[in-house]
Write the structure tokens for this entry.
Amino acid sequence: MKKLIIGWREWCSLEKLGINRIEFKTDTGATLSALHATHITTFFKDAVEYVQFVTQPLKKKDSHYITCVEPIIKRKVVTSSNGMKEKRIVIRTILTLAGRTWPIDITLTNRTKMTYRMLLGRQAMKQILINPKKSFFLGKLPIS
């Protein structure tokens, strides 16, 4: 399949998590993607460990919050751009971008102070090429 060309930031959806649209920034320095999450709690059900978390896909203060429950794939120590280490929960979800879908692993972390609610890491970029000169190469989504 031909690789999809995208800009350095784009809109996607994570419909399995109930996220119809979220703006992401590509991060070729990160192995895994990262998603904004707060109120993170874990629990076991039928010998499987799950995580429950709240996300707010749009940064606008009055935008909606989504509560998600997903099985935990693993935990991974991630070093952020400021050098701080954080042990994060990793979940697997489905990314939809320009009509294409594929599974990605994504870490959960509080990105309240960050510009983007999601970073797209290298593991999720196997089907895409990035044009670093373009922003919203696939088109801007209307604000609602």
In short: The CA atoms of residues 94 and 103 lie 4 Å apart. The longest strand covers residues 85-97. DSSP finds no helices and twelve strands in the chain. The two ends are 33 Å apart (CA to CA).
